[in-house]
Amino acid sequence: MASSLSTKPFSSTDALSAFASLNPDLRSFSPGYLRLSLRPRLPKRLQIRAAGSIYGNHFRVSTYGESHGGGVGCIIDGCPPHLPLSEADMQLDLDRRRPGQSRITTPRKETDTCKIFSGVSEGLTTGTPIHVFVPNTDQRGHDYTEMAVAYRPSHADATYDMKYGVRSVQGGGRSSARETIGRVASGAVAKKILKDFSGTEILAYVSQVYNIVLPEDLIDHDTLTLDQIESNIVRCPDPEYAEKMISAIDAVRVRGDSVGGVVTCIVRNCPRGLGSPVFDKLEAELAKAAMSLPATKGFQFGSGFAGTFLTGSEHNDEFYIDEHGNTRTRTNRSGGIQGGISNGEIINMRIAFKPTSTIGVSLISSLSVFITISFTHHTDTSHPDMFTDIFHSAYSC
Amino acid sequence: MASSLSTKPFSSTDALSAFASLNPDLRSFSPGYLRLSLRPRLPKRLQIRAAGSIYGNHFRVSTYGESHGGGVGCIIDGCPPHLPLSEADMQLDLDRRRPGQSRITTPRKETDTCKIFSGVSEGLTTGTPIHVFVPNTDQRGHDYTEMAVAYRPSHADATYDMKYGVRSVQGGGRSSARETIGRVASGAVAKKILKDFSGTEILAYVSQVYNIVLPEDLIDHDTLTLDQIESNIVRCPDPEYAEKMISAIDAVRVRGDSVGGVVTCIVRNCPRGLGSPVFDKLEAELAKAAMSLPATKGFQFGSGFAGTFLTGSEHNDEFYIDEHGNTRTRTNRSGGIQGGISNGEIINMRIAFKPTSTIGVSLISSLSVFITISFTHHTDTSHPDMFTDIFHSAYSC
Amino acid sequence: MASSLSTKPFSSTDALSAFASLNPDLRSFSPGYLRLSLRPRLPKRLQIRAAGSIYGNHFRVSTYGESHGGGVGCIIDGCPPHLPLSEADMQLDLDRRRPGQSRITTPRKETDTCKIFSGVSEGLTTGTPIHVFVPNTDQRGHDYTEMAVAYRPSHADATYDMKYGVRSVQGGGRSSARETIGRVASGAVAKKILKDFSGTEILAYVSQVYNIVLPEDLIDHDTLTLDQIESNIVRCPDPEYAEKMISAIDAVRVRGDSVGGVVTCIVRNCPRGLGSPVFDKLEAELAKAAMSLPATKGFQFGSGFAGTFLTGSEHNDEFYIDEHGNTRTRTNRSGGIQGGISNGEIINMRIAFKPTSTIGVSLISSLSVFITISFTHHTDTSHPDMFTDIFHSAYSC
Amino acid sequence: MASSLSTKPFSSTDALSAFASLNPDLRSFSPGYLRLSLRPRLPKRLQIRAAGSIYGNHFRVSTYGESHGGGVGCIIDGCPPHLPLSEADMQLDLDRRRPGQSRITTPRKETDTCKIFSGVSEGLTTGTPIHVFVPNTDQRGHDYTEMAVAYRPSHADATYDMKYGVRSVQGGGRSSARETIGRVASGAVAKKILKDFSGTEILAYVSQVYNIVLPEDLIDHDTLTLDQIESNIVRCPDPEYAEKMISAIDAVRVRGDSVGGVVTCIVRNCPRGLGSPVFDKLEAELAKAAMSLPATKGFQFGSGFAGTFLTGSEHNDEFYIDEHGNTRTRTNRSGGIQGGISNGEIINMRIAFKPTSTIGVSLISSLSVFITISFTHHTDTSHPDMFTDIFHSAYSC
To answer: Do D77 and D128 meet the contact criterion of CB atoms below 8 Å apart?
Structure first.
């Protein structure tokens, strides 16, 4: 009977009526597991439904794990040998990613302690695959009870069930924000490689929360530091706007609602020559990386959408020769990329994150507010793994 | 001596002064060819600088060719057999892509007549690679003379030279808009496959030119037709706004300037279940495809950047059961994709194209205005090739 | 001082003299770890030295782990949902792979107990990545002491050090036979998929040991069973030849030597149509898969090398129509593959394994004999993972 | 009616009876085209049947074209810029590949004149895709008439029809030996890169024809030259054995039969460090490359199958330090590769080619003898393109 509740096919007319008949004893039915739809076994036709859990060409990351199982993790294949690496390198970013660190985020108490299982010996990478594992400690199956019944709006529940015939309940699916742990762990390694190789830094900060928009010229990308970003719980490097943003979040939080926003991400000291001219343009790779993060709705770089309101002569990003004899551009409206190839200027991107749909009203009253700002936990560390790969493929010459 | 003019290294202090000393006889030096930088041969270190000219996994397209050579073309590997296909299928879209069809676009007179060299027999595809070739007819080497000297701002000239040590002059490089011919030809094949397989249609139209913004609710995506889009030279399906856009273009055109804009692209009758939950989310693949087009600066889908000004409860895309018993969403703020997987609603994307930088002032006075609207020539046909691949990989089950 | 012993560069003149001066106290220096060569850090030039630990396109396997660390394992990405799967399915093949089960193999006492950490819920796969982990229990660091000093002949020690600057001591590198555990675990999953989908079976048996060559016609590939293969410790389905092989192994084993041999692998009930006509021929994929196993020196299928002694008219594999109206071939000299595509007949392959070079004489007297026959532990289970991928890509239509 | 003859489904009982009723007027039916099977259109289920016509990761080759169309060719993506390149570089190898140059090969009179259409400017590569085209000049449709009716034994006809539903008649399919033209053209480019970068040479010669087996020690791989190989029509560098081989071929040729043989291929001055330890072992990549050539039945390197008759102590490939202080191996039974990684010794491979099945007896009396020795036309040039890719990926560090 429990299964009849949890296994409605995607196009059923009674998905919602099933919800209406919700049995309060539901939570007693195998609470710790995924529910599998009972749709009839598919005919004997081999099905490709690749989970797409591998990223990169040279620096390749495979991630695995769900919230409901023993833990999550990743394998990094292609990390160069002789890189100093320890759990501490990753832990820093994993702690930043972790929700529940302040009143404005989900109050989960995860510890996310990582352990390296292979690929590192005596503190140095050996060139073999690096397996990083983070055990789950806060499974809280009982909070997700209702999700077993109805598809949560704006979530992956419905589409995942339709594609795989599997309900993604209890935060358990791969669409869980916990999936980004593997990105952050591998991103921490990528950041070390980039820093070591070319002094390249990737930084991200919150530049908009709801209707509070940080004016672009308040932040100097040449001097921005991680400390400035980390100086407040909303991760906006301008203290005044940080306060405004926190107030905006608090205002919606108290009524059980959530907000979205924009993250600005910059790449500083990017080597010239990354990317290639046709299908694998650098901006195309960056867009794919950014848009693979949960809850993203848009990507722009350089002049972006605002640039469409300029004429060509206004938009022009003139060249000049700086005091060191280097060819530079004056306005960086090109956003550090021209013709698909980095030109050495700062790459600046803006990524839109929707207000998280797991709200405290309507269907899922038992779920705590999952505040959108959680994206700052992972964006600045999840980009590098992609970036390193572009790095490898385009600049190792 | 000509070569000394054309071979400035990227960080030279005299790139601009070289331009000042431009010898009027320059054009007599091998006018029909690429100039190669005379930088010393690189040391014996094998260099990976992949041109990235192959796209897709199952439906794979390799493109080649420059404006200065004999022609451009592509090979399509992985097209299913038994598909009716002729040059006429591609020619329709190639003609749409071709600039110079109206006063608002570059007045080049290219004919872009394609020829199929392999993979089709008696009007049907055979499952073997399809080679499509489009000869160059309008090389006009003399117009590009000055480009041989100075890097054009906001172009790929400088970055291409830096990466490959090769000047991309005379419209000759792979960054030329002519590169998209291979995308359009293969996209025409992809469109046929999609239409045939699931009735899927991809349509694109101009929704913003400079400061003329088409209100979203003027266009009904359920009934929009290609004829409506093609009914005017600016390819905006609303006649009134089309007139405003044309006027805006004319206003800047007469003073030798250019404008940018936004293209809206929709996917109608998209099967459910495309895309996968982690790195290969459908929106990530679409973003990469769109951002690999020349001159793009931004990508958004569904509620996009505007959605960040909503709260979670406002943004929520509620499910309901329609009259056919299908699970649908009410607002489509999800833009047809949830958790990285298509849900069957219309996928709607908006792509920002910068004002083309090849303007009639400053360095390159001899070049005609290249009006931004040319992007409409290829966007709706270049998406499908990407889409088909997602199709293959995700839905062939 | 220990490091000076263990860090000889590849072209050092004193690799062997270092061995001569071997300090008996060597084992006291960090016995449980990889030794890293002390060669100077490479210049700031990003290096691609991908470890190549990911296999497949749709059914993708990432393996990790060394003998010296906490364990080995793999992630399987792309396994279809709803497949019944438990540790027991893999344990069967892991036990078969495990050395030390009889007197003719390495007497290590590994237990190789696997655990599934993700991707399976309530006994069924969920379509998400499956992480399988096998802890190391028998590290025996002390046995490998001498390897820290000199390169073992015919091993990967020297080349691995040269390429990565890392010594692969103590059985610790990825070249360890323990690396195949990840193949076997994923192969067990692949075998279930194949069996379920099309009744396809992959069986392997020993057809030659040293100079004992099993006559081909003694084995009926149409009726061969796993039980027949498993009926003796040498895994030759013919009892008489099995005895001869065991005697041959015993004869060399008592004098501390080892032997090689040939494994025959067949694919029964292979669907027609796998493979494609040009670069990705089925035999090419199978050859790559087989030759990626440790210690392999050769691959042949169908008539193989022997077929070169026939004339074309003798070799011809004539078609006929069987009683069910199916087009069959009479001789199967084609080995189940024609023009790169499976034709439905039994695919038969023969793979040569060299005598393992870790012998009890010369440099490494403390190492136990590692008998070649160990290859039978993994070949029949490591093929399927490759095969499934071909399956997916070629036959899912 | 013609179509009823040419469109027998794969499992038809009357494929052969159709042949019996062969109408002498058949040739009048669309003689210049592929025949398409008339099997009913497949249901609306998108089908992946990738032709697999793209090879490589960094140096990527896409080939296209059939014998029956306008020509064949390839696109090379990822060739470094500044490489001197002209048609003459490729023509040399294309001429070597071309059949019909001596009495022992197919007497076709193809000229195979190549033309470069893109990617080269003023004699140097520009880093953009190189398109090479070779027009067909000898289509001879009338010779292939009978093939339209019955499947040729040991050919790709039956499997291709089964997989794609398309008959591969008139030498027209991708299984035609003419497909290798694209390999040879791209291989010629690869050979230049390898020679230029590291002095690496790849040479191949015939070491067995039918029962004439060239003793291995007659050829000194350190000094072997292309001139020695080209000194006779059978391409065996030993003149005495060349004569024996030619006699053996003549003996079977006069009775309308054919023979197979073995090609030995060596890689000299191979850099150390190519290949990686697990799935992408160098021998695995080489095996795939070799086995993707038409008519191959086996691959071995180093001690190969013969090595299985040695004990471990006999087989051992001991290290020593040569006069230049380099670590070398004494016997090269490892065949230049240890643990999947090249060690700097000569890589030696042996590839078995079956006797070509297109014989002058039985079904296809009108076809001329296609003598097996034609493989020498392409093997030594088709390997390099694969090798260059390994090169790029493994050694660009």
So the answer is: no
